[in-house]
Structures
1.
Amino acid sequence: MLSDCKFSGLLTDLYELTMAAGYVQSGFEARATFELYVRSLPERRNYLVAAGLEQALEFLENMRFSGEEIAYIRNLPVFGKVSSKFFDYLSDFRFTGDVCAIPEGTIYFPGEPVLRVTAPIVQAQLVETSLLSILHFQSVIASKAARITAAAAGRQVIEFGSRRAHGIEAGVLAARAAYIGGCEGTSNTYAGHRFNIPVYGTQAHSWIMAHADEAEAFSSFLDVFPQATLLVDTYNVRAAVEKIIALGRKPHGIRLDSGNVLADSEWLRNRLDQVGWNDVEVFVSGDLDEERIESLLNSSARINGFGVGTALSTSSDAPALGVIYKLVEVDVGGRVQSAAKFSEDKHTYPGSKQVFRFSNPDGILSHDIIGHEDESYPGAQPLLVGVMREGHRINAKESGAGAHAAQKRFLAGRDRLPKAIRGLDAAVRFPVQYSRKLEDLFIQFRENLASSRT
Amino acid sequence: MLSDCKFSGLLTDLYELTMAAGYVQSGFEARATFELYVRSLPERRNYLVAAGLEQALEFLENMRFSGEEIAYIRNLPVFGKVSSKFFDYLSDFRFTGDVCAIPEGTIYFPGEPVLRVTAPIVQAQLVETSLLSILHFQSVIASKAARITAAAAGRQVIEFGSRRAHGIEAGVLAARAAYIGGCEGTSNTYAGHRFNIPVYGTQAHSWIMAHADEAEAFSSFLDVFPQATLLVDTYNVRAAVEKIIALGRKPHGIRLDSGNVLADSEWLRNRLDQVGWNDVEVFVSGDLDEERIESLLNSSARINGFGVGTALSTSSDAPALGVIYKLVEVDVGGRVQSAAKFSEDKHTYPGSKQVFRFSNPDGILSHDIIGHEDESYPGAQPLLVGVMREGHRINAKESGAGAHAAQKRFLAGRDRLPKAIRGLDAAVRFPVQYSRKLEDLFIQFRENLASSRT
């Protein structure tokens, strides 16, 4: 949709631009560190999955302001007192900061920074909105996919939700994130091409409806696609299956998209086995989510694979996470100062952080410590790694490698979660605590604030 | 994000491409009519708002397959038996169909087609996924915005949700759709530029946190932006307000983003009035939705405007609608045949349709009839109008005119809804029925089906 604006500097909330103008005009020069993290888990999530970093870094490398865009800002009445120094700044804008991040596919928890930006404060501020938007969305979808693929317990899950994702771009990126969260592929052909993800498709009701005869509709489709999965619920499921059997042409699979899927899948499996079609797969779609899949499998439904649409591509039960991007440190001319927010109901921890992950001897994760970045814990894995230095990606991956590596990382990580955290039910929270050093910094900051700022 | 693919033909589910190949290869030539509509209302919606047509038509006019994309499809194993006739077809692909649609900003109800495509069946099929995706998303957001702006009862509502929309494109288009649904503007600067929507912004906590002294932070911001709205909840709301008053520099407004907004807004209004700052506006943001706004206003909160983020930009209580695109008519060599789906739990109405809207003498809407397109009802307004002929837009609007005209249409339409439908609570459903002629067609189709197809 937005070809003309992929990396536009205008892709930001207006207040980022007013604050940027304020910093430039008032000559406030500082190097700032911001951290991006999620405040809390939605009710039906036990963990989250990092995703979207590849797109976020691509944005940081390429964000620019065109002359026309700068003219637009300059003409907004609110910028009436802003001097040309700021507009010159925008025309030369390049992101030159350093970025650390948790690699895509890593499992993470609330409070844990998934990205840390250190840059001149104007730059770090201007990229806030887009960083949040890019990393939030893919993490929402990957975390939902993680539940759905867990429920399918090894059976194939294909992402089918482009048509009800939040726009065309969201459909493409949902396919990518769903793949990271363990899906085997997607119906989104663009995502297949762009990210080298396996694509899958069957046939729609319209194919059957356009033909005067249902048997002819199946037959002519098999002529072109001998390995097709045929859709049998346009009129009457069992009648349709008998027509396919009568054709004597074995398809790859049969798809059920409505009706009593449990009963029909049992009948279908038996009927297929009866005629010796034991290898014809039963594929189910239509308003599925992780609870429905778990319930079907608990009822011993004999299903080989699932196509999951809307619930996955919109994460319909939890379409957003409380993700924020907070200033934690400011360096004004070499004087490093911590920063935090202490409003009545919300506060943040000051200081530049690292997440330390601890495992039991059997490899199962035991707990995380959110510490200061200069701490070290023998035996723990630090999750944040350097991904960008002075505006350039470190070890930029070939296109497509990102999603595959991320899926692999996620699947390995899920296997190391305590069993209760891995499941669908609300579990005892995975233990995450702040380090002693961060707690001290927090207390000290609050005391300074009480004495000096308020 | 997706500059290289804005109008890519790959932006579709794989099965659209396999069916297209099936039609081309089997020589099945027909002119088909598909209709796009929503099956049912989410629990907390009394009506829906049409939005996204401008982007949908832009897509239809520009959708193409590049050589590289065609090579990708050709190399997919599933296309192994597909002849070059199909790939030649793709390289020449242009959408040449006719489109009727309900104008953006029109209020509509389940079952009512918002778009009707008549085109060679291959074309009509290939555009399904993108049409659904584009029209669904903006309608979801405009319908949510309609509730939020209704709750605000004339007070300013600004869309603030880009950072948690489903990606960058979704943020931009959510801003557009929210504007159609009655918002006064957006914080999304790109959307402001692209769609000529008013943009708004205040300042973030980081501005305050980056300065060693809160009063200095306010003061230096006012130096550059004398008409600023200042954010007072970084540390302590009342202390911050006193600092602003002590500066003696009157801002345009004060923003509360957390805490006890009801109590703080009352205290703030009184305090501002006390010092003679009666025209300084109280602006509230932070986890707002229509219920929260209604509850604040029912408690007589004294608030001038609201910034609404996540709940609006993701329509968090109902992030998706059951929107479908169904074949209703096929014309094979002049023989016009109705089409419908009759699975056990879902059926569709055959025939090419029009929506007829009836009003009472006082202008308030009384009911809709979904009829056959060749019917006519004196005094009723037909909602679907021709918007594209042979692949070209009829009366293509200047960029930006679309969202403004649509907002105007929506606001006028909302005033004509029966009062119960206009409100937030679940109402008696607005009366929508199928015409006698469509009911007869439905029965006839079902009987034909029973005798011939199953």
2.
Amino acid sequence: MADKGAVTIECRAGDVLFEQGQPGDRAYMVRDGLLEVSLIVNGDKQVLGAVGPGEIVGEMALIDDQPRMATVTALDDCVLLAIDRASFRTRLDATDKTTRHLLNRFIHLIRAMAARLAESRAQPR
Amino acid sequence: MADKGAVTIECRAGDVLFEQGQPGDRAYMVRDGLLEVSLIVNGDKQVLGAVGPGEIVGEMALIDDQPRMATVTALDDCVLLAIDRASFRTRLDATDKTTRHLLNRFIHLIRAMAARLAESRAQPR
């Protein structure tokens, strides 16, 4: 990811980078540290995974222009490269049509599954 | 999608193209007709969406080499272009690293959410 349109930011362990349902105008490339991706389902937090160095988070809202699907919280002190919408979209537009279609379909599926999760009640096995 | 490594197949309304949990070695580009993507959660079918002309289905198993995440059933008589693993992977390898990373992450997230759905009990709103 080119550094044009990107700015380095730092966050502390426990900081919420963004919250489920908020509008999103930035994606983040993790330089250092670990962040947790979680979903609030009927008031309960469900951890979906973690992102670490070299990984990107927050790009979904930039691809489909919908609110943030999940909440991302720093587990460590983190260093992130924040990428603005225009830079991200420029890069995305350079991707071939089939791949863009796949990215969109995956995001659509992720949002559909998040809605299904919200309709269901979490129960232990 | 190039036609090399691709073969046209037809299926009838009601046919199951592939089933959740099976190994997968083909992706399908829909030429004609509509197919339903569904998940069996605690014995109940949950419809996640539909794919139609110009869309691809079944590519996830080719990207991450895991079993089929969902079941895909033809809603109409369909014409599909079946794309083998080698052709699909050749195309994928030509995609830039960041995009491949995103595709992998989305699939990882989709599978994590499918597992969460399987742990939960579907309830009416």
